[in-house]
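Lecture 7 notes: from sequence to structure.

We start with a single chain of 386 residues. Read the sequence below before looking at the structure.
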Amino acid sequence: MSELSSKADQLKRQADLIGLTREAVFTDEQAKEVLQGKITDGYLVKIKIDLDSLNGMVLILVSSIRKHVMELYAVVGTSPTFRRIRTFADHVQISTDLGDIGKTGGYDPAISENIGRAVHRVFTKEKLEELLPLWQKKDPSHIAEILEMPILAATKGRNIKLQAEVDKLSTAKFRYENPMKGVILPIPKPEDETPSAKDASVPGVSTEPARGELSSLERQIAQYRTSFPKELNMKTVISPINGVEFDNLMEGMEILFRVPTETPEGLTNAQILGLIDEEGKISKEPVVGRFLGIAGNKTEYHIFAEGPNQYLLHSVEEHPVKVAIPKPASMAGTPNKGSAAQGQKKKVGNAPAQESKSSGANLFMLMGAFITIVLFGVLIFVMVIL
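Now the structure, written as tokens:
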């Protein structure tokens, strides 16, 4: 039982990591490469804060692929533990120390939240696009410069000192193994504030709504998800010759998907869809979904369809493709049957003609015999008279 339990825990962990990784990437292939360690999908920005009589840390988890802030933690207060935390320390150790501070109540939640919200407003998608190339080179020098004034404005502080480091890591592993879980919550992005409020608290920062967490594309995706209890990640079945182009897809049209069974999540989805028999064999038959729509921009296209049992089928393509549709009912035996039927029709159609032809020949022979008899009789009658 312990071995089975261990395997079940391992599968659950893999499935959880896959789900978390997908939130930081665009495609299943990218998620697979991240989990295999071929690529890294994020950065953790570690910022130590000395603010007047307070000390603290800000941790910012950034997706380097989607280019947005995934989670942001701000913990600032008077706990002596803050003084021994160093930005170059391992992020697990830093998170553990911050979790301990949270348990003892050695931080100020209100000030921490104000700082977190101010940092959120600075790290827009546009700003991240400027900073990510620097972080790739392990250069965090600009972070302190762009955050000092916004943090002072948000806290009404006077003196501030910031130290920053950047770690390249897997966003999923950080979130899955985070020692702060259940103790310190991430600071939410201030989406609901008006431009005037942002101006008052963070001078010099753009008042346009930040588009990191809830972009236009993500709003489109959310519209499809609201009506379905469960979403299954799928692969589009592509047919370059007989497929239907994106522009020609119509709502309600049947299109084909397949389950990516190379991952634990895919195997679970295959089980849900009834594609695995009692012997553990996986059916290769495609899954049929009724097309709902496409959410996309110039770099990614999310295809949505209603699948069996009202599951939402979701696949992602990096460029427009021709989507496969179910073939009409198999016509494999139809040509032979049609030929046989046509043969039968020909035979049936020829029969009356042959009968008519035979009857005509018989009548002609009878008439010839009759004429011969008549002529023979006339000849005999003439001979008798003479």
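Confidence is low (pLDDT under 50) at residues 192-213, 331-358. Keep this in mind for problem set 3.
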